[in-house]
Amino acid sequence: MGDIRLNDDFLVEMLESFIFSEFTEKDYNIYEQQILGIGLSPEDLKQTLDRILESKTQAFKDKIGFLFKINKPNLLDLAFSRAIKRYKTKMTLRFMQFEQNEMGE
After folding, report:
1. pTM of the entire predicted model
2. 38 to each of 33, 73, 84, how far by Cα in Å?
3. pLDDT per residue over 40-71, tens digit each?
4. Domain limits at 40?
5. What is the domain count for the chain?
């Protein structure tokens, strides 16, 4: 039982890293507005994700496909939520740095 949870944590961290490295602001917005927390059926989720994944690497697409293959698409919301938080933190820090540079501090 512990191994399953550990594997889920690993999958979420791996996906979060892929998402963070490959997604743009537009991708995050689409995911937040059309997928996150809505509770789509696996088929609807897959169709919606296909639009976002068109421009992503094959490795990333394979990881997403693997989650559907092992019947764990629910881990996507967790990975995306974490990546979104990480992205927003990055943008906030970038803005704060810009403001600090503009003020000459």
Report:
1. 0.73
2. 9, 13, 16
3. 888 888 888 888 888 899 998 898 888 888 88
4. 2-103
5. 1
Q: Which residues of 60-85 are buried (b: 16+ CB within 10 A; e: fewer)?
A: beebbeebeeeeebebbbebbbbbbe
Q: What tokens does 35 get?
A: 């997928």
Nearest C-alpha neighbor of 57 from the set 68, 45, 48, 65: 65
- Two structure tokens written together for 38: 């809505």
Dihedral-angle region of residue 102 (phi above 0 means left; psi in -120 to 50 means alpha; beta otherwise): alpha
Q: Residue 6: how many CB atoms within 10 A of its CB? A: 10
Q: Can you read off the two tokens belonging to residue 70?
A: 């092992």
